[in-house]
Specification:
Immunoglobulin-like; 5-stranded mixed beta sheet; mitochondrion inner membrane; 32% helix; 21% strand; alpha+beta; Helix Hairpins
């Protein structure tokens, strides 16, 4: 669960979210190094006199500043593509849950079992008990097993919705007339908001 003034992501609960956190740190380090280099070069240009005119038409410099950004983009793109493929693959799910978004609530159906479905409404602010979170508490929570691959089928009845659980690294759009699919696996028990 996120808390006020939090600077980073929520704690990872799934292998995908752990990979996303590692990728975030990897990319942030590259951005930090580039920003430091650019700041150093700008400060150098402002504090020194440019007397070396031979560097202005050097073929080697132009080659370096053309090839170096391409290498940096590859260093960012390859881990990103690996994570995208990991998020998209579904390995023999143990459970399938169909999620339908409605204008003010979600409907869940465990499709592997007959007649096991329920609606989940948000609890109004006036009915919240002390310690409950506004706009996050619902009357019927979805219960999912831990350390099992679960396939979520997400769609909508009326308008666009977004089914998201940040600590699991999930965000899937619920679009009317379209059935989107995502996979999740929690590595530890807990109550996760989204």
């Amino acid at each position: 669960m996120a808390y006020p003034m939090q600077l980073g992501f929520q704690d990872a609960t799934s292998p995908i979210m752990e990979e996303l956190l590692h990728f975030h740190d990897h990319t942030l380090m590259i951005v930090f190094l580039i920003s430091s280099l650019v700041l150093y070069i700008i400060s150098l240009m402002l504090t020194t006199k440019l007397t070396h005119t031979s560097t202005m038409d050097a073929q080697e410099v132009e080659t370096i500043w053309t090839i170096l950004p391409a290498i940096i983009l590859i260093l960012i793109a390859l881990p990103s593509l690996r994570i995208l493929y990991m998020m998209d693959e579904i390995n023999n799910p143990s459970l399938t849950v169909k999620t339908m978004g409605h204008q003010w609530y979600w409907s869940y159906e465990y499709t592997d079992y007959e007649d096991l479905s329920f609606d989940s409404y948000m609890i109004p602010t006036s009915e919240l008990k002390p310690g409950e979170l506004r706009l996050l508490e619902v009357d019927n929570r979805i219960v999912l097993p831990m350390e099992m691959t679960i396939r979520m089928l997400v769609s909508s009845e009326d308008v666009l919705h977004s089914w998201a659980v940040p600590s699991l690294g999930l965000k899937t759009d619920a679009i009317p007339g379209r059935l989107n699919q995502t996979t999740l696996m929690s590595t530890r028990p807990g109550l996760y908001y989204g």
